[in-house]
UniProtKB/TrEMBL annotation:
It comes from Goodfellowiella coeruleoviolacea. InterPro entries: Amidase_CS, Amidase_dom, AS_sf, FAAH2. GO terms for cellular component: endomembrane system. SUPFAM superfamilies: Amidase signature (AS) enzymes. PROSITE patterns: AMIDASES. This is Amidase. Pfam families: Amidase. Residues 24-464 form the Amidase domain.
Length: 483
């Protein structure tokens, strides 16, 4: 039997039943990578010798009667996580030789759960793109169409899962970096509630792995089924043992409902700042129809929904002010002059990005206060609804675009060009207030490309969108291997 596209849940059951060994699963995964990854380029840092040793250890542990959540299951890890003995570069050439001394907390949790790490997956330069390519490791191609991107910044992980290179992967999300690659490659991903999963060791080199509470950014699971997302989230979730973990024990509430007919869902397919392409709109409608056919209460409008335009502005302001602080830009004084020259009436997304790049601390606090008002608005919203269904980006995977000037790129939406980074507004809808969001497959475009949507849920009620994803999989199907 070939195991490469079986779910992690199925692999765990087969391992427990003695139908297969971890060594067999690991050897099969490595053989598939060696055969197929030359054209995909998802696994940028193989770790096959240590993977085989970990598989042997897992089989011996099982023979002794041990059983852990992922014991013997082959997985991959995004390159941006520290792994002792392997380079962590974030795709930055100046750090190509940086090798951390210890594992990131999430890598440690994977290993403690018994997972076998096959290697690390590719990312964009500094994790700052919706594609995954860099000077060190090259370009990751979409398994469905090698001329198109697999997404970013967790594009290597999504491409690996779609190609059968391991059953699970861990990524991160600041600007849709879990959800966009899942949407482009036809897999599942979950952006957890902000602060739910510890991030220590998922840090740009050569910064020390400190237990810092990041703004906007989260780490999360990627898989080929929604049940596998839940399995991996349970491994990842929980505070850092160096800080809140000393006093807090995590207990996630159960999903609000178990039956589709009990869910109350708002469906969105239009954004005030950017149109939704026809293929993605069709995917949203397909999910909406499945929900309605299953008896869910489906609405298209609600006065309780926080203002989408203001939400997008707040998100871009927080995103760009934080990104510039972490990765200082050249010509800061020129940016200040350009921002000062903007008309007060200019409320475009470009203007918001430019102003955010030169924010003062006072500016940031004002935006943060407005974010808290949005969070309060979402609490009122989720008293009446259980989830929001909406796009992740306006289009399926687009052709590779390696123009070094990211602000000069554009995104083609049904034949019309729009600023490249304007497509982030849908990802920001969940990211800005810190809400959980599950990316789910929703069919294919007329060209045969995967199309996904996101299910946004209430804060710290991550099991609610995950359960909804599981119910949708039963009605409209889920992952399909690239043809």
């Amino acid at each position: 039997m070939e195991w490469s596209f079986h779910s992690a849940e199925e692999l765990v059951a087969a391992l427990r039943a003695g139908e297969v060994t971890s060594v067999e699963l690991t050897d099969e995964a490595i053989a598939r990578i060696e055969r197929d990854d030359e054209v995909i380029n998802a696994i940028c840092v193989p770790d096959f010798d240590r993977a085989r040793a970990a598989a042997r250890d897992a089989d011996r542990a099982r023979a002794r009667g041990e059983d852990r959540p992922l014991l013997g299951v082959p997985v991959t890890v995004k390159e941006s996580y520290n792994m002792a003995g392997l380079p962590t570069t974030w795709g930055m050439p100046q750090h190509r030789d940086y090798v951390p001394a210890e594992d990131a907390v999430q890598v440690s949790r994977l290993k403690a759960a018994g997972a076998v790490v096959l290697g690390k997956t590719n990312v964009p330069l500094g994790l700052q793109d919706i594609q995954s390519f860099n000077e060190i490791y090259g370009t990751t191609n979409n398994p469905w169409d090698h001329d198109r991107t697999s997404g970013g910044s967790s594009g290597g992980s999504a491409a690996a899962l779609a190609s059968g290179f391991g059953a699970l992967s861990i990524g991160s999300d600041l600007a849709g970096s879990l959800r966009t690659p899942a949407h482009f490659c036809g897999i599942y991903a979950h952006k957890p509630t902000l602060g739910l999963a510890a991030t220590r060791g998922m840090v740009a080199p050569p910064a020390p792995p400190l237990p810092v509470d990041l703004d906007l950014a989260v780490v999360g699971p990627m898989a080929r089924t929604p049940r596998d997302l839940t399995l991996l989230l349970d491994v990842m979730a929980g505070p850092d043992p160096l800080t809140l973990g000393k006093a807090h024990v995590l207990t996630l509430p159960p999903a609000r409902h178990q039956r589709l007919s009990d869910f109350r869902v708002l469906v969105l397919d239009e954004h005030p700042f950017i149109p939704t392409g026809s293929a993605v709109r069709a995917g949203v409608h397909r999910v909406a129809d499945a929900l309605a056919d299953g008896g869910a209460r489906v609405e298209r409008h609600s006065p309780l929904l926080p203002d989408l335009a203001e939400a997008a502005m707040l998100y871009l302001q927080l995103l760009y002010s934080g990104s510039v602080a972490r990765f200082p830009v050249d010509g800061y004084e020129q940016l200040r002059a350009r921002a000062a020259a903007l008309s007060p009436d200019d409320q475009s997304l470009d203007a918001a990005r430019l102003r955010a790049m030169v924010f003062s601390h006072h500016d940031w606090l004002e935006v943060n206060n407005r974010r808290e008002l949005h969070r309060h608005g979402w609490r009122r919203f989720f008293a009446e609804f259980d989830a929001v269904v909406c796009p992740i980006t306006p289009t399926p995977a687009f052709p590779h675009d390696h123009d070094p000037n990211l602000l000069e790129r554009s995104i083609d939406i049904d034949g019309v060009g729009y600023p490249y980074f304007d497509q982030l507004v849908w990802a920001g809808l969940a990211t800005m207030p810190g809400l959980p969001a599950t990316a789910v497959p929703a069919g294919r475009s007329p060209e045969g490309l995967p199309v996904g949507v996101q299910l946004i849920g209430p804060m710290f009620e991550d099991r609610t969108p995950l359960r909804l994803a599981e119910l949708l999989e039963q009605r409209i199907g889920g992952f399909h291997a690239p043809e």
